[in-house]
Amino acid sequence: MIQTKSLTKRYGKTLAVDSLTITVEPGKVTGFLGPNGAGKSTTMRMILGLDHPTSGSAKVNGHLYQHLKRPLHEVGALLDARALSPGRTARNHLLALAATHGISKTRVEEVIELTGLRSVATRKAGSYSLGMAQRLGIAVALLGDPKTLILDEPVNGLDPEGVRWVRDLVRHLAGLGKTVFLSSHLMSEMEQTADHLIVLARGKLLADVDMAEFISQSSEIGARVRTPYATQMADWLAQPGVRIDPLGPDLIEVHGLDAAQLGDAAATQGWALHELIPLTASLEQAYLDLTNDATEYRSESFEAHVGQEA
Q1: Which positions ≥6 away from 284 have C-beta within 8 Å?
Q2: How confident is the model over 294-310, as pLDDT tens digits?
Q3: Considering the chain, what is the average pLDDT of its residues?
Q4: Where are the beta strands (DSSP E) in the chain?
Q5: What is the rounded CA–CA span in Å between residue 292 and residue 287?
Q6: pLDDT at 296
Q7: For residue 222, how many other CB atoms are within 10 A of its CB?
Q8: Sign of the four-CA dihedral 280, 286, 288, 289
Q9: pLDDT tens across 87-101, in order?
């Protein structure tokens, strides 16, 4: 279990984490979301004792990280896949860590096998791709068979098979009763992986909620409609509270009316519908809705620039 209480971190005048109180429970995958600069990495570093809080506390299994007697057996972490000796092989890197924590060579071979590094275990880590380095970082996190895992963007650089492997791995570990705290900017992947969400923006807690409940907050109704009468239908439906996005010559997306209303409207006008798909809420939309006013680094719409160039 991970618990923070009024956890705060200042860097000069910058408030990176603002009185954060959360509990990351065992037996589930907890996703950690937030825009760039939200304070996620700083929070993870404070949990692991790498940064000292300005005030407040962060504990793992009831203890400050620096007070854990056998840290690799209590918590495994991946914060930076490239934070390893480039001249050391994966096997030697793991053996060195194992030797300092009383972990057997057998366990080293187990995590090499588990993470798919068998064929490259004798290669120097400096020659690894980002995806291979991620696998080695996860192997380090798993080495002590810890009760708690903290993984910061673990699927970066992984191919689709590797992404699915990480998803299956963390869900399996949570099923064993372990605490899994996972950050990622890949919303579709997080939606498939996490049971619970903690959302941070500008250092403040915005949400601490189950995944299903969080997604249900994005409840805008709508549907995607394919019809030869797309232009006529868009003109006829135009009214306050309804937004229509043209997606093609015969395809529109309607927001503000549900699929049944759109089907009825088409029937009254005699418009043939070739496709009518209700829009479902997604983690991405719920997240964007929540963080819309709290994004520190915001890009301008490319449509405006494309329009100017045209």
Answers
A1: 187, 188, 191
A2: 665 555 544 445 445 54
A3: 91
A4: 2-11, 14-24, 28-33, 55-60, 75-78, 148-152, 179-183, 196-201, 204-210, 222-226, 243-248, 251-255, 275-278
A5: 8
A6: 57
A7: 21
A8: positive
A9: 999 999 999 999 999
